[in-house]
Amino acid sequence: MIMADENWTQFVLEGSTNINVRKEILDSWNRCKQLGVSYEKEEIFSHIKQSDFVSRQQKNFDLINAAVPIMEEFCKRLKGGGYLLLLADADGYLLEVMGDHKSQKLADRCGICPGARWTEENVGSTGLSIALRTRTAMATSGIEHYCLALRGWDCSACPIFVDGVYIGTFDICRIGPKNDLKELYTLAGAGARAVTERYQFNKTKIKEQVLSSVLTDYVHKLNEKTGIISFDKNGIELFKNKPAQDFLMLFEKNKFDLKSKEKKIFSSFDNGSVLNEIEVDGKKFAIDSEVILSNDKQLATVIFIHPKTKLILPNTIVNPDYFAFNTKNAAFEKTIQMAVKVSKSDASILIQGESGVGKDYMARFIHNQSKRRDYPYTAINCAALPRELISTELFGYEGGAFTGAKLKGNQGKIEASNKGTIFLDEIADLPLDLQATLLRTLEEKQVIRVGGTTPIPVNVRFLAATNKNMKELVEKGEFREDLYYRLNVFNIKIPSLRERMEDLESIFNTMLSKACEKVQREKISLTAKAISLFQQHTWPGNLRELRNVIERIVYLHDEDTFDSFHAHEFLRADQSAEKTSEREYITYILHKTNGNRTEAAKEMGISRSALYRKIQKYSIE
Fold first, then answer.
1. Total Cβ atoms within 10 A of residue 480
2. What is the pLDDT confidence band of residue 311, given thresholds at 50, 70 and 90?
3. For the chain, what percent of residues have pLDDT higher than 90?
4. What is the β-pairing status of strands 525-526 and 410-411?
5. How far apart are CA 619 and CA 612, in angstroms?
6. Which pairs from 286-295 meet CB under 8 Å and 24+ separation?
7. Helix (H) or strand (E) holding 589
8. 154 pLDDT higher than 80
9. What pTM does this model have?
10. Are 47 and 115 in contact (CB under 8 A)?
11. Mean of the per-residue pLDDT values for the chain?
12. Can you say whether residue 323 is alpha, beta or left, with left for phi > 0 and alpha for psi between -120 and 50 degrees?
């Protein structure tokens, strides 16, 4: 039955917009006219071919699986009432159509069937087409529909959202006129909510079964860096963890550089056949899959991605600053792997790198990996101690050895570190005469206190660090060659921060998060442009400079978002880069230590003489 009314006639035949209809309807009618939709349509002609429809069914399997039981229950309860139920996907294609004999007969005559596209461009104004466009619930009467083919129906449609994602629309129609639109609106809303709940329940149930199976039967395959991707029997992704997501991003980024076989790595997941090993961007991954069954039927396929080149560190790591070594840099990763291996030895290690790269972090990291981790770890900065105190600090003294000495004497740091580790930072600044004494301690494994004659046995592992070229110092006669080789049994070189910029974002965010937590303020979020600007900075002070910048941000930045403007403000990137940044860095440290240059040098990890040279270089007052 074709329905017409005065408002519709005035609009479509006379072009009048001064009519008494709802704004939503008038807006839709205007869009239909602009799109060139024919109001004379008495049948829906826009249908996709069968092969395309089958593909849509597969793509929307979970939605159909959740909605069909709901639609069947509705039809049972509304039987004989002339109701028609429609399920559309997110693109507006009808996936399911259900109704009683009366409504189905009229639907067939109008061409309302699975595969029809239900957008305004195809069917004009209806509750479903408007809901598809606006993503909001919409009820319409027949006289509000634009095309003649659909003016015999009243309808109401409600979008279906799952976890905030729009996946389709539930629509309920009834042969008109004079239907209660409020009733249709309520039914459509109830149907959409029921589909959402069932969809989430189905997914949760499958995920629980898959996870239970993985954790029960495949736990031997898992570690914190194992990527896990799960698909149901129809190829729909159930879940993936963070390592898998990282791998997929890397895979897509480098896909064009891979061999044709490698590009199809997941094409055969359904039969459990995947490539055993793949190299992406110079990194090797071992990949295997398992089919998970439920009642002898395939429930899902799980793919495990094992990074072969990634270092899996022991559980003994207790260094809170380990994040500084959580690297994506292949060369530094090998350095860390070497550090883990040599930590098992008792031989001395020389750690080299620029000021502020984290040599002290590395020393503590090695100690915590070693069998000495339950015994003392002592760090001494050879550049920070006055010349006259170094010997007593290291080797201790006997009672009465000098004016002001304790009557009972005092043990030195080496003696106090027995069975543990002693870390000598800035070893290049150790005076030559004390170098000889240290060499004797290393060779004889005993110390003699200042003012004493009795050797005291010690069992200590020595770690040393410097930011200087030790070979040049040896050639110049400023450092003993025999001590150099005694300390340099193993050599660990830590790259500067600018040499591993791929790690900056992770380190920055971790440090910033810890700093915010420490002062009990809300977390600060950095924009991509701010990170990019920080990555362009040369960071002459390395991790130490980075920590200082972050400390300033935490105390001085009042907003919760930190963008490129703020980064410019804190780095003064608009001025000459490295010199300005280093000058600003030194000025900040001097301000922090209230002008105490000894404390400033200690904070920066350099000698006082080096600090004086820099102060003169940059004309710092």
1. 18
2. very low
3. 35
4. unpaired
5. 10
6. 288/221, 290/217, 290/218, 292/209, 292/210, 292/213, 292/214, 294/209
7. helix 577-592
8. yes
9. 0.45
10. yes
11. 83
12. alpha
pLDDT at 318: 39
Cα-based torsion angle of the residue sequence 416, 422, 425, 429 in order, rounded to the nearest 10 degrees: 70
Least confident of 175-179, 313-317, 351-355, 467-471: 313-317
Cα–Cα dist 515/567, whole Å: 17
Whole-angstrom distance, CA of residue 452 vs CA of residue 434: 16
Contact 451, 397 (CB under 8 A): yes
pLDDT digits (tens, 9 = 90+) for 527-554: 888 898 899 888 988 888 888 889 889 8
Cα dist. 501→136, 194, 332, 537, 542 in Å? 46, 49, 12, 10, 11
- Residues in CB range of 482: below 8 A, 6 or more apart: 439
Decide: 420 and 462 in contact? Cβ < 8 Å.
no
263: CB partners within 8 A, 6+ apart: 255
Q: Is pLDDT above 70 for 404? A: no
- Which whole-number Å values give the CA distances from 174 to 84, 136, 153, 544, 600, in the listed order? 6, 20, 6, 71, 81
**Which DSSP letter does residue 1 get?**
-
* Statement: residue 320 has pLDDT above 50: no
Residues 6+ apart with CB under 8 A from 123: 41, 44, 46, 116, 117, 129, 147, 149, 150
- Please answer whether residues 514 and 506 qualify as being in contact, where contact means their C-beta atoms are separated by less than 8 angstroms: no
Sorting pLDDT into bands at 50, 70 and 90, what band is 580?
very low
SS3 (DSSP) at 227: strand
pLDDT of residue 169: 97
Gap between the Cα atoms of 183 and 78, Å rounded = 12
Find how far residue 89's CA is from the centre of its chain. Answer: 31
